[in-house]
Amino acid sequence: MRKVFQNAVEALADILTDGMTIMSGGFGLCGIPMTLIEAIRASGVRDLTVVSNNAGVDGYGLGILLETRQIRKMISSYVGENKLFAEQYLAGDLELEFNPQGTLAERIRAGGAGIPAFFTRTGVGTLVAEGKEVRAFGGIDHVMETGLFADLAIVHAYKADTEGNLVFRKTARNFNPVMATAARVTVAEVEHLVEAGEIDPDHVHTPGIYVQRIVQVPNPEKRIEQRTVRPVRQTEDA
């Protein structure tokens, strides 16, 4: 099975359809599959449901799909950095399914593991629990959450081999690995691509069996979402 494609547009060409559900990896602007997101924008597909921890920022990440109004619904945890997101949501143009961050991660992991639902204490007694089953375990209420499984997962990895074995780096390991397991098709953009067998099996984070397509994106832009620095201290001689 040929897994390596020349570019993101080619890798997604026969996968994208209107109304599909897409998982998009990353945390903030760290580890987001920007090249694949740009290819989705170029395709023009619409009415997308996107599962992602956040919605990027204005003009970058998933924010560019909000600009073109290709996203109909977001299933997310944190969306506070995107003004356009807020405007579309408040205007009723964008549907939102909020999740506590840990619950979102577990819903994705459960979907990849074939677990249809689970119970958690997080969200009990809040708006998150409205309309959901609540059951007591050990005398403590828990709310039922369902697993998530997508038509397509797009992820960003630091390294891959031609068989699709993936290695993630630092913060990019937050959502990319679980999303790679929870979709019918997983497409990975990778910074470094090596031949099969060149990655130590003990260093593999996501086995290649979960990955159907690979695109190499060397030297991708890596933006900082918020840069916080201390003010320069003035000395008496300054």
From TrEMBL:
Keyword Transferase: yes
Keyword Transferase found: yes
Keyword annotations of the record: Transferase
Family annotation (SUPFAM superfamilies): NagB/RpiA/CoA transferase-like (SSF100950)
GO molecular function: succinyl-CoA:3-oxo-acid CoA-transferase activity
SMART domains: CoA_trans (SM00882)
EC number: 2.8.3.5
Family matches, as Pfam families: CoA_trans (PF01144)
InterPro entries assigned: 3-oxoacid_CoA-transf_A, CoA_trans_fam_I, NagB/RpiA_transferase-like
Protein's name in the database: 3-oxoacid CoA-transferase subunit A
Native source species: Chelatococcus caeni
